[in-house]
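Hi all, posting the design record for the shared folder.

TITLE: backbone redesign
STEP: 1 of 1
STRUCTURE INPUT:
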């Protein structure tokens, strides 16, 4: 696939200061996109924008706040005239046994993993509807399909995001079939995401059974590998996209083994 695939596309990427978000922004820029990058950390965000080149614009924003999401959209349109693709990539994990999960933990998981996506969809969709085309890409996790300890609260928030996305996909299919809603499911990724997770304890993943580790993604992928799949999906895919070969088959096999 050529590197100019996105030469006529304006793409917004949230959570773009590091990890998959930064890798996605840089891959989009290499493919010719005009990119609008959003994150809370101004310094790292600016570094990513510089690596993306002249067609990058960064907006310091907290996308768990609706007003910030609206401002992000407004700046994207002011800079480039439109938005073609909106990538909701913000997320936060948690590593805590179920009986230790607090009200604040649940609120954080819903705020960071669900509300940020909801706000993005609600803000950009009227614009896409007016244009009659475009795409919303929501970055989930295989844990949204297979809720596993000690990440149950994170998995539940990602599952809620998945349901929201699927319902919205059905809703739009009837009225605006050219607007695509895509959900991307990475497995384990070699980023600092785990270090930013609430209550994360080093070595937690090693306590999970072998079949569970297989179900949540097998081999670890790099952020760049995930970004390649994500960008391809943003360009022309519909529905669910798994970043690892046979990932869905592994998830289905795991679920079929569970007691009925």
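Okay, here is what came back for every position:
SEQUENCE:
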């Amino acid at each position: 696939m050529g590197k100019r695939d996105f030469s006529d596309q304006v793409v917004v990427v949230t959570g773009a200061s590091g990890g998959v978000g930064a890798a996605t922004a840089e891959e989009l820029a290499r493919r010719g996109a005009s990119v609008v990058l959003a994150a809370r950390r101004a310094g790292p965000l600016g570094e990513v924008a510089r690596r993306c080149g002249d067609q990058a614009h960064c907006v310091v924003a907290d996308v768990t706040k609706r007003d910030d999401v609206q401002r992000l959209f407004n700046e994207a349109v002011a800079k480039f005239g439109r938005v073609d693709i909106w990538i909701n990539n913000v997320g936060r994990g948690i590593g805590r046994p179920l009986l230790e999960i607090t009200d604040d933990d649940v609120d954080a998981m819903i705020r960071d993993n669900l509300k940020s996506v909801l706000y993005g969809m609600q803000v950009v969709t009227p614009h896409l509807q007016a244009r009659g085309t475009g795409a919303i890409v929501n970055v989930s996790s295989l844990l949204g399909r297979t809720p596993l300890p000690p990440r149950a609260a994170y998995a539940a928030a990602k599952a809620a995001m998945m349901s929201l996305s699927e319902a919205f996909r059905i809703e739009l299919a009837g009225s605006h079939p050219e607007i695509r809603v895509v959900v991307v499911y990475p497995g384990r990724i070699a980023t600092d995401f785990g270090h930013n997770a609430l209550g994360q304890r080093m070595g937690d993943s090693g306590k999970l059974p072998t079949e569970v580790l297989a179900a949540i993604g097998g081999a670890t992928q790099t952020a760049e590998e995930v970004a390649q799949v994500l960008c391809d999906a943003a360009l022309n895919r519909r529905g669910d996209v798994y970043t690892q070969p046979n990932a869905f088959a592994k998830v289905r096999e795991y679920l079929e083994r569970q007691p009925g």
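COMMENT: The mean pLDDT is 88.
Let me know if anyone wants the other runs.
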